[in-house]
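Q: What structure does this chain adopt?
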Amino acid sequence: MSDFVTFNQWVKDYGIVEAILRLDFKQKYIVTVDGLPRKVRVFEKDSIYRKTFTAFEEDFQKFIAAENKGREPMFWNENRHCGGMLFKKAQFESVGGYCEDFVNWGCEDSDLQWKFAEKYGIEFLPDELEVIHLDHPKGYFSPEMWASNEKISAQRKEKGVEAIIQIDKGKK
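A:
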């Protein structure tokens, strides 16, 4: 059973506050539901900001054994959860919401964050805050899908945020 399934059950049984209090925070970079030590690989990468990725040792071994170069999103967890955002409904609507052109997953969160950053100055969480991203199966990943989504993202940024907002609003 994944940590997410257990945590979700705790939330149902005890509420969110008690569920968070039940988590084990003893290890650096990870939170677990059972307190058992897990070996973690840590990878740092410079991008728009310094990114720290982690991979459980068992996921790392699957990655290298199956020659999955280029399929890192199936195995790595980022130190910042890119899908979580705080904003007002009016702000969401004013930027045209999510772009529905992206396939399956990948880039739609970053695209929305880009629009918020440009229009409202809403940026990533400050470093002093923590993000809990519980372990769960990563699901479907295709290098072709990822390349397509990154191409869509680059084309949208070339057009500029104001033009993209108008396009996104027109699709709703």
